[in-house]
Amino acid sequence: SQGLYLLKKGNFYPLFKYAWESSFTVTNVKLSFVATGVHPMDAERVLKKF
To answer: Sign of dihedral through CA atoms 17, 23, 27, 28?
Structure first.
């Protein structure tokens, strides 16, 4: 086997949900911004200018 798994329609969502929930954590999202050098806009700072 080459590590391939026969994925049936009924198995997709549970596997996708597990991958999504384990990948998109607050820590991972914050570290992604740091790693790319992109910083989310500070809404409060922008609103104070208007």
So the answer is: negative
pTM: 0.52
Distances, alpha carbon 43 to alpha carbons 18, 21, 27, 37, in Å: 32, 27, 20, 18
Is the Cβ–Cβ distance between 5 and 15 less than 8 Å? no
Nearest to 32 by CA among 21, 40, 43: 40
> At a CB cut-off of 8 Å and minimum separation 6, what does 40 contact?
33
Length of the chain: 50
| For residue 1, pLDDT beyond 60 | no
